[in-house]
Amino acid sequence: MKISEKLIEKYNIPVPRYTSYPPANYFHSEFGEKEYVEAIEASNSGWPQNISIYVHVPFCTKMCHFCGCNTQFTRDTDRMCTYMEAVKKEILMVKKMLDPVRKVSQVHWGGGTPNSLPVETIRDIMDTIHENFEFIDKPEIAIECHPAMLDEKYTEQLVQAGFNRFSLGIQDFKQEVLDNVNRDAPKVPVKEIVGWIRSHENTGVNLDFIYGLPFQDIKSFSETIEKAVDISPDRLVTFSYAHVPWIKKAQKILEKRGLPEADEKLRMFLEGYKILTENGYTAIGLDHFAKANDELSVALKNRKLHRNFQGYCTRETTGQVYAFGATGISQLEGVYAQNGKVPDVYLERINKGQFNIEKGYKLNTGEKIVRHVITEIMCNEFVSFEETARFFTISVSDVKQALHFEEKQMESFVVDGLLQMEQGSVFKVTDAGRFFIRNIASKFDPNLTNENKRFSKAL
Fold first, then answer.
1. Three-class SS of residue 316?
2. What is the mean pLDDT of residues 196-223?
């Protein structure tokens, strides 16, 4: 698929990534521990009823220059294990406030580098979760892993701990790219690592890549994606490198080494998209891909795809997210709550029996409507104001009022062939429009009319 230079120039502007609505830069410090406790109690009667558990490991043994995550460098195993004891305490603190009939549908370990921990520590936390919660049938229990720190025995022990999905942060197969972003390459071929995982029944594999890094070009990134297709993961992600040096100072190093221009960066994605879709993968949202028989592909086909801070999921497996660990963000029905980012402060507060909430945000009814509409566009590439009105038991007029909606906001997308609009209330993203889906979503966001916050560019 060819995207014109004119469209690239027109739409390559700063817009939110919409992993949440409102975005995280709207969270504020007036939201604290008291508000979080109230939100946990209220969440028992909220939607969805399922529980998603997120465990954040804020440690890496080596810092990648591209990283935008909240993480710290350490190789002190004792420090990491002491931190995880506090995570276990926090889980039990929240558990006391949850309705025991509710079930866990997702567990996700992220970071940082979760597999920098001793596997015994991970198993201890997982045992705590299994002992204190009921699970739905076929829950997704996932862990992000740095492939350079995996061996066959460690992988087997993670499966024994209950993990059934592994996300391997490959980023690129080209050694020069990895060297220049300060990332270690796997010690054994990725295909062999995937083989270890698949030797166990009912395990899924995701491979994660980043485009837009120094020393990447269209040819090299295409070769990386072709190699990924040969490995044949169940799911694959091609993340656009988000350059935010005003937040992450280390990213300035990459400026000196040369970042691809927006046009070449988009061509990388388009070539990757072409290779993947021609080899049986379904495009999920902007940057995810799944095999045609994967539950995410089936959910998209049926317009039942959803997304929370755990990532893409189905409406059946999604849950309200309860996050544990420094910097973790809980995503309850009407509230976001973020733990403080400093592990030592987190440890001190949890050991005193206090939550370490640094900031958060409580949504009003209008913002919940906006969030629903943006989620539908970002996930299912389709939204109907009539269906939205039925979901909230309100009128279409109420939906439009919450969005501050005017048809003329969408006209340029329709003219440019990025969006189909019917009667000003039904919207379907076209194949070309998928590449500008953040731009389309932003037009449903009334907060952007007077926006003064900074975001990464769309492409």
1. coil
2. 97
Q: Is the dihedral of CA 272, 174, 212, 259 positive or negative?
A: negative
Average pLDDT over residues 412-438: 94
Q: What is the mean pLDDT of residues 244-248?
A: 78
The whole-angstrom separation of Cα 410 and Cα 417 is: 11
Residue 17 has a pLDDT of: 82
Instruction: Please state, in angstroms and rounded to a whole number, the distance separating the CA atoms of residues 366 and 376.
Output: 16
Nearest to 53 by CA among 20, 19, 23, 87: 87
pLDDT given at position 455: 63
Which H or E element spans position 282?
strand 281-284
Question: Shortest CA distance to 196 belongs to which of 227, 238, 229, 231?
Answer: 231
Q: Can you give the pLDDT at residue 389?
A: 98
Two tokens, residue 427: 């919207």
Query: What Rg value do the Cα atoms of the chain yield, rounded?
Result: 21
Give me the pLDDT at residue 450, please.
53
If one counts every other C-beta atom within 10 angstroms of the C-beta of residue 185, the result is 16
Strand partners for 145: 168
Question: According to the 3-state scheme, what is the secondary structure of 11-32?
Answer: HCCECCCCCCCCCHHHCECCCC
Distance CA 161, CA 347 (A): 24
* Cα dihedral sign, 1-275-108-298: positive
Q: How many CB atoms lie within 10 A of CB 101?
A: 8
Q: Are strands 72-73 and 59-60 parallel, antiparallel or unpaired?
A: parallel
Q: Are strands 329-331 and 335-339 parallel, antiparallel or unpaired?
A: antiparallel
